[in-house]
Design brief:
The chain is of the alpha/beta class and 450 residues long. It is built from 15 helices and 16 strands.
Length: 450
């Protein structure tokens, strides 16, 4: 390993970082993380802080989950890699596919198509949705609907159904046939409606109107996160996702649940779809499936879609898509160990309890600091704070001030994430009550200094 002087001298000089301007990384070199244990990370300067971001929504079991690490070591010795393209498989991925069928049985999802991560899982779901309709003889169903403020990765398909212009503007034109409907975002919405139940119905009505305008016979799928994550942790009213499910079913439109963030316990339920009592047709998963220890994902497929594909005799159901690392044996072994440990620890209980503690603490801070315009969360361990410079007018806080708040919080002992005017918190699902209290204390230090 190169020494600290080498790392400092070469930081950001020879690589471009995701989600940032290359010049900014050169002017403000990234913090170098060199170690982690439990729910804490350490940087090159020796600072140890609570990771309230949970890696990137994915380190649900913390950084010291030995069963996963051991499974990776063992698999690297036995079979570090082989393809699962037509004609070959491996023992680890067969076991994992069976485990996932059991895990997602309440959603009626019984088949897995393995991927390298969340963006890949969304891409496969979009492809399978169009192909499903072609196999059924409805080749005109090619369009996609999704929510404004939604985030579905940065592949061309995922970016095209994204509802945030930041991920689209510099790469347009995007995939044709993608249309967006209003999200149930109570703090800011086109209906000027702050009642979450009424807003949910307005958004459902807008979806119905868009379907009627486009023509249901042209639409392949509707894509949504059960709780919008990167868009600022937008929690819909309980009627919203079931309402979307009913509309999709009535119009013959497939429902794709993007659960890259919410699957495996994040919401205080095992999946976000289960949290709202919904059975999607396709589900994109990744992140927590290996606790972030290996890049891996799975697109889960419903019984009904599986039946259409597997009973096809025309050849149209041949899945002409996949990745070099689909079903990677080392990733599969990591996922098997991770799911076992996730279930053994029953992390949904702690996610619900600590999520309530975090949400209530943030609401208390909102009462004290006018810089907090809105607090969102309360459904598991995912929370969003929207900063404003003028609460009465909901004027978004400037990025420089938000960045200073983040820096102060870090030096108070907590890594938090800033995205625009939002601070997003998604700590490990094994975090303790005392650590949540420490997170809240560090946040207050940052807000006081703003």
């Amino acid at each position: 390993m190169k020494d600290d002087n080498f790392l400092k001298e070469n930081n950001a000089r020879h690589m471009w970082h995701p989600m940032t301007h290359p010049a900014d990384s050169l002017a403000n070199p990234p913090r170098v993380i060199t170690g982690a244990s439990g729910v804490r990370i350490r940087d090159m300067e020796g600072n140890e802080v609570i990771d309230a971001v949970g890696g990137l929504w994915n380190v649900n079991l913390g950084y010291s989950c030995d069963p996963i690490k051991q499974a990776i070591r063992d698999q690297l010795e036995a079979l570090p890699y082989y393809s699962t393209f037509r004609g070959t498989s491996n023992d680890a991925v067969i076991e994992l596919s069976y485990m996932l069928r059991e895990f997602f049985a309440p959603e009626g999802l019984s088949r897995a198509f393995f991927t390298s991560g969340g963006g890949d899982s969304i891409e496969i779901a979009l492809r399978l949705a169009r192909q499903y309709h072609k196999v059924k003889g409805e080749a005109g169903r090619v369009k996609y609907l999704s929510l404004k403020k939604g985030y579905h990765g940065t592949h061309f398909g995922g970016a095209s159904v994204n509802g945030n212009a930041n991920f689209r503007a510099q790469y347009e034109p995007m995939l044709p046939g993608c249309f967006h409907t209003p999200a149930p975002y109570t703090y800011r919405n086109q209906f000027n409606e702050s009642d979450p139940e009424k807003l949910a119905q307005f958004c459902l009505d807008a979806l119905e109107e868009e379907i009627n305008f486009q023509g249901a016979h042209t639409i392949a799928a509707f894509v949504m996160e059960p709780i919008l994550g990167a868009g600022g942790v937008i929690v819909p009213y309980a009627s919203f996702m079931p309402g979307v499910r009913e509309i999709c079913t009535r119009h013959g439109i497939l429902m794709i649940a993007d659960e890259v963030v919410t699957a495996f316990g994040r919401t205080g339920s095992w999946t976000g779809s289960r949290h709202w009592g919904v059975k999607p047709d396709l589900m994109a998963t990744a992140k927590a499936i290996t606790n972030g220890y290996f890049p891996f994902g799975a697109c889960m497929i419903s019984d009904e879609i599986a039946e259409v594909f597997e009973n096809d005799t025309s050849g149209k159901a041949n899945v002409a898509s996949g990745y070099t690392y689909s079903g990677h044996p080392t990733g599969a072994a990591a996922a098997v160990a991770c799911i076992r440990e996730t279930k053994r620890l029953n992390v949904v209980e702690n996610a619900a309890a600590r999520g309530t503690q975090l949400h209530q603490g943030l609401l208390a801070l909102k009462e004290k600091y006018d810089i907090i315009g809105d607090v969102r969360g309360g459904e598991g361990l995912m929370a969003g704070i929207e900063f404003v410079s003028d609460r009465a007018n909901k004027t978004p806080l400037d990025g420089a001030t938000a960045g200073r708040i983040q820096e102060t919080i870090y030096h108070a002992g907590v890594m938090a994430r800033i995205s625009g005017p939002n601070m997003i918190l998604s700590p490990a699902l094994v975090i303790s009550e005392d650590d949540i209290a420490a997170v809240l204390a560090a946040l207050e230090t940052g807000f006081k200094a703003a």
